[in-house]
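Dear support,

We are seeing what looks like truncated structure output for some complexes. This example has two components. We would appreciate it if you could run it in full and send us the complete token output so we can diff it against ours.
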Amino acid sequence: MKQRKRVEWSRLDNASKIFPATASDKDTKVFRLVCELYEKVEPKVLQRALDDTVESFPLYKSVLRRGVFWYYFEISDLKPTVEIESLPVCAPIYMRDKRNLVFRVFYYNNRINLEIFHALSDGTGALLFFRTLVSNYLLLKYGEEFAYKGPKLDCDVSVSKKMDDSFDRYFDGKEDLNRKTKIKKGKHLRAYHIQGVRNDENRMQVIEGCMPVKALLDMAHQYNTTLTIFIASLFIYSIFSEMSANEKKVPVVLSVPINLRQFFSSATARNFFSTMNAGFSADKNTADLAEIIQNISKDFMESLTEERLVQQLNHFMSLEKKLFTRIVPLPLKDLFLRLANHMNDRGITAAISNIGQISMPSEFDGYIKLFSIFTSARRPQICMCSYKDNLVITFTSPFRETEIQRTFFEFLSSRGIEIEISTNIDNADRNE
Amino acid sequence: MKYCNHCKVHIRGNKQKCPLCRNILSDSGQDRNEVYPKIPPAYERHLLIRIMIFISIVSIVVSFVVYSIFPSDINWPMLVVFGLLSMWLSLTLVIRKRHHITKNIMYQVTVVSMLSVFWDWRTGWRGWSLDYVIPVVCITAIFVMYIMAKIMKLSIRDYITYLFLSALFGFIPVLFILFHWVNVIYPSMISVAGSIIFLSAILIFQGENIKAELNKRMHI
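Here is the complete output from our reference environment:
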């Protein structure tokens, strides 16, 4: 008898392995990509666009399943459906034993929202999918207006390249033993932890600020630094100004994801990132933004070298490849990963992630207003991206408090930057 | 769009207060296009469970009180405690594995078999657990699983490993017969016979699938 259907499945890449183990109702490990158009989204067209898009990203049709030793993606024949936004932002996607896709597409008024479980892809990878989706949508909806010239995305690569496990391709897990000590240095320092009152049902509070990218760049240049470092420093500054004198003795440390595609050529739509920490500890009670910038720049300089990255990633790869790790049953692995994650969290105050500039074919200029990205988080987190002249900086937080966000945006607005705030906070219900 | 005079920022959507400083916003025109929908709070699903937990605790407390007022030879309140524990154990698994019917059946087979042996042992070992319960549970599980898989139109690869496993389970009563642990032999015989037939059917017709499934699930 012939086999009816080959079972297609694939392993999770190195960075993905942490997410199914550590996802919970409090931190769902789901992030959202948003594209806001100038007109209302038409669900039927979006559905057709989605059907087309998913065909060229076969791994996105996967279901995440538990094996005896590892998680794996199993290609399913489930069809993703477009729905009107009906769940809290970044609601859980991966539920054990439930056979569903690990992403969802919502629309609401002018916005197309893509929510993805982080095990499937990182921000840049998901953006590849999302840009294709948006571009397919616009082509289907306004096709005749581009008739003379079909706009083409710059991310048109082969399916196998998009589904590539780039960790496996670049890192063999062979560690340079002489350098091993260098990574571990200063790892177990405890960082300041932001406290707050959780939102009901562990919902995420989203505060999104849209502002002109040029004004921000100019401001960063005044401080002789890059946009990411400037925003990271301003974030630390805002956190710092809400700390009590006693708390100021502990450092404020930001975790910053690094997109590895800029160091190791890859066009994968899966995870390919690493993280670094950048921190600041004050020796006095007040902090000066310029001083923070100086500290943060130093951390960025040290961490963002290819040598350092190779070393770090080979270390993670070697952990995965060890025979002992491989034969430990999955429930135990989950436990270890959760523990490791917890230890790592002790040294982190907050996180900032810059997806950078998002480019779309210029024909779409008149249709797309902005892109935005944000993620579920255990503590306040900034995600940012820009599209043309719109820079969107989004805070997500599991807490009700908004002091840090206020300090942050006030700093910018008081220096003459026009900011448009959108939020999912519904203060009509709140008794304050 | 509204404007907050304190924070000097524009606020989109129809907000009454500034999300940053929580001051009342100046009312400068309505913004019809909300950016985020209002999501109502999730419906409280666990009320039934709470009621059941409450009833369990009440019945345990009441049974101990009644026992101390009207003592009897059998320590029956302990039976109530173990009975409720068994029920909760089984129920928790049903709920936790509710998305995965075949896994759920496997867990139930294991739990019910173990509990029946435990109860039989604690109530003076009359052998009913091995005579009847385990063989009947095993053979029923195989049929229920096969029927459920057909009704729910599960694809073969989703249930084949579990069907295989439950057929292996159904084979276990062969030990009861060989070692003369049972007084009534027929249920065990039926279970073993059924398992052999199922196992051979699976291996002959679905051997490739089983192999592929195992490779996938057991990869290291």
